[in-house]
Amino acid sequence: MKILCWNYRGIGNPATVIFLCETKVQSNKFPFIRSKCRMEGCLAVNACGKSGGLVMMWKAGTKVEIKNYSGNHIDSFIHDENNKPIRFTGFYGNADPNNRKSSWDMLKRVGRLVKERWIIGGDFNAILDNSEKEGGRRKPQTLMDDFREVIDELSLVDLKTDNGWFTWVNNREGTAMVKERLDHFLISASDVDSFLFIETKVIRQSNSDHDAIVLDTMGRKPREKQRDSRLMFRYDMCWAKEAEAKNIIKNAWKMYTGDIMDKLEKVGHDLGAWQFKMYKMMSRQIDTIKSNICRIIDRPGEGCDGNELKAMRLKLGKLLDREEQYWAQRLRVN
Q1: Where are the bilayer-spanning segments (predicted)?
Q2: Rounded distance between C-alpha atoms, residue 299 and residue 202, angstroms
Q3: Which segments in the chain show pLDDT lower than 50?
Q4: Among 160, 180, 218, 268, which residue has the fewest nearby CB atoms (within 10 Å)?
């Protein structure tokens, strides 16, 4: 089971459940967004003017039961791969420090009712200690103490991400840059041993200063070898402008003397091998750029270059658009 949490500026990751906060969108807009994300279920909480707004969406075949919700949370039952219930609470901490106590009180009320395995995820708008912020004014100690007090009272564990640290950057230059780890997954301390393969990651974004976090309950489980994509060739629009692809088609068509069906099979074989190579190359480029973004953001001190970060995000956006076109085309064909 994968749970994606994001302070909303776009969507598009294959997850079992998606929780978005600060959507700034009214709930009647989300049926369209749900459809675009290929999700089946959806519960949206209205934005208040130009701020706030939450949504939880889940894909077909996922059994989700909404328990309660507010402007700061959506509480639910989700059944995992073995049909065992998990209590998942999508959480958004009040952005105003003066009103954040009400968010903590709400989370405590939910926690007192939980009997199942419990996972909380979202944008807490808070840090646990000074290691979770660089730049700008130091956070008041009382705010960090309040966050830790909630974790201690509810017997929760903060899950560290496997890659990256900060989840929000203000994209300023030099000493004006501020970086914070505002997004967290928390889990009941008593349940840690029941998730042997749990994995959490930061998903770097191309068009947002706020990155997503994803939790995969089976992320560390060894996977069976995937079927070779060359055996499932499909024509893809994202290669249509590639001169190399055109040459492969021409050469395969001219060199093979069989009937038209044999020629099509030859073209599919040759182009499929090339397509597989190009897709793997594109995937490696995306991974490299995401790693570079992590390196830039998590660089200690004042070494973070805002212009370099913007350039990397722009490159990532172009590659992600191309990858999205690739998968959209395959879904239409299938």
Answers
A1: none
A2: 15
A3: 8-13, 228-231, 333
A4: 160
> Strand order in 179-180's β-sheet?
133-134, 179-180, 168-169
Q: How far apart are CA 263 and CA 250, in angstroms?
A: 11
Put the strands of the sheet holding 183-188 in their side by side order: 64-69, 73-79, 85-92, 117-123, 183-188, 156-159
Domain boundaries, the chain: 2-216, 229-333
2-216 sits in which CATH class? alpha beta
The residues, ordered by sequence, that sit 6+ positions from 51 with a Cβ below 8 Å of its Cβ are: 22, 24, 95
pTM of the model: 0.77
Residue 189 Cα distances to 3, 105, 144, angstroms: 19, 20, 20
Q: How far apart are CA 199 and CA 169, in angstroms?
A: 23
Enter the tokens of residue 69: 């919700």
Q: Are 163 and 201 in contact (CB under 8 A)?
A: yes
Tokens of 155: 């017997």
Instruction: Return the structure tokens found at 26.
Output: 């009214």
Residue reference for tokens 């999700």: 39
DSSP state letters, 105-129? HHHHHHHHH--SEEEEEEE-S--SS
What does the pLDDT look like over 246-259, one tens digit per residue?
777 777 777 766 67
Helices (H) then strands (E): counts for the chain: 6, 15
User: Tens digits of per-residue pLDDT, 86-119?
Assistant: 999 999 999 999 999 999 999 999 999 999 999 9
